[in-house]
Amino acid sequence: MSNETSEASRGVCPYCSAAFDTFDDLKAHVVAVHQTDPLPKPDGLIQLTVNGQAHELMVAPEWTLYQVIHDRLGLTGVKMFCDRGACGSCTVIIGGRPILSCMTLAIECDGKTIETAEGIAEAGHPLVESYIKHHTMQCGYCTPGFITTAKALLDKNPDPTVQETMEALGGNLCRCGTYPQHPVAVRQAARILKEDQSK
Ligand code: FES
Ligand code: FES
Question: How far apart are CA 96 and CA 64, in angstroms?
Answer without folding.
Answer: 19
